[in-house]
Amino acid sequence: MGAQVLDGRAASAAIKAELAERVAVLAERGITPGLGTVLVGDDPASHSYVGGKHRDCAEVGISSIRRDLPADISQEELERVLDELNADPACTGYIVQLPLPGHIDTNAVLERVDPDKDADGLHPTNLGRLVLNVSEPMTSPLPCTPNGVLELLRRHDVDLAGQHVLVVGRGVTVGRPMGLLLTRKEINATVTLAHTGTRNLDELLAQADVVVAAAGRPHMITADSLKEGVVLLDVGVSRVEDPGTGRKTLTGDIDPAAERKASWMSPNPGGVGPMTRAMLLLNVVESAERQAGLR
Ligand SMILES: Nc1nc2c(c(=O)[nH]1)N[C@@H](CN(C=O)c1ccc(C(=O)N[C@@H](CCC(=O)O)C(=O)O)cc1)CN2
User: Fold this and answer.
1) Does the structure's ipTM exceed the value 0.90?
2) Is 202 a catalytic residue?
3) 3-state class (DSSP) for residue 114
4) Environment class of residue 290 by beta-carbon count within 10 Å: exposed (0-12), middle (13-18) or buried (19+)?
5) Residue located nearest, by CA, to atom 33 of ligand 1
6) Is 227 a catalytic residue?
7) Ligand 1 within 6 A of 283 CB?
8) Catalytic pick from 16, 53, 117, 261?
9) In this predicted model, what pLDDT tens digit does every residue of 82-91 receive, in sequence order?
10) How do residues 93-145 score in pLDDT, each as one tens digit?
């Protein structure tokens, strides 16, 4: 028997319906939440993700503010756009689509975002609150992908308390905050954070009850290394060219054939990706609720 599906599309549809109700409550008070996106350059995948974010906004009644900027924009000009969004009352929260071109200092950009408008939860103040475990439940935005992973598991009644979770990937958008969230008291997982420099990855995989794969290495995790009954979450979004057709297809970090070992597995596409988008909307709605004194 194969793994049960951690269905991100269904879960995100349910979350969007719930958020549309919360947006309607805000509308009764004359408030329309607004999401801003800042996109630099012509990367097709980034354009497609940003387009998806604006479609989601339209679905739940959040207004959209879009700033598409040339790849050769200077740091100064880019930061000026952020200052405008920081000052714009129609913009409840916004994101800077990552990755940014190499000549841009990404950390300086993330720091320029007003922490109260940080829809991605990636501003140092908000990441710091997560590290400090300032309040439970959190009153600041959480990074969308790690929060999406937890929400996906919650909505399928997969309990992580006491489980050994192996997070593969140390990036700031997924791996690092994922470890912090998993070790909070209400989740209570035991976490190992591995990465592409980890030497004994196969040993760690063989011990893991749950694997969150976010290293960006296509199909780096295969069935052979995994324990029977493992829960698998695939965050990888590499685009790999099919040698036959020349077409690029979305390829995760986990070989789909690993499903035979798993009790639960997130499909890719259709798993963590839609949850990332849903958690972004949640951050915007919660931010609007905070600004309205409803939280
Ligand atoms: N500022 C940010 N930049 C980036 C983030 C982020 O959270 N904040 N994460 C990724 C990209 N990303 C969101 O921006 C993202 C990736 C994938 C999906 C998604 O829904 N994927 C679909 C498949 C889509 C496809 O076929 O291309 C799925 O998994 O079903 C949503 C958001 C890097 N940048």
Assistant:
1) yes
2) no
3) coil
4) middle
5) 98
6) no
7) no
8) 53
9) 999 999 999 9
10) 999 999 999 999 999 999 999 999 999 999 999 999 999 988 655 678 999 99
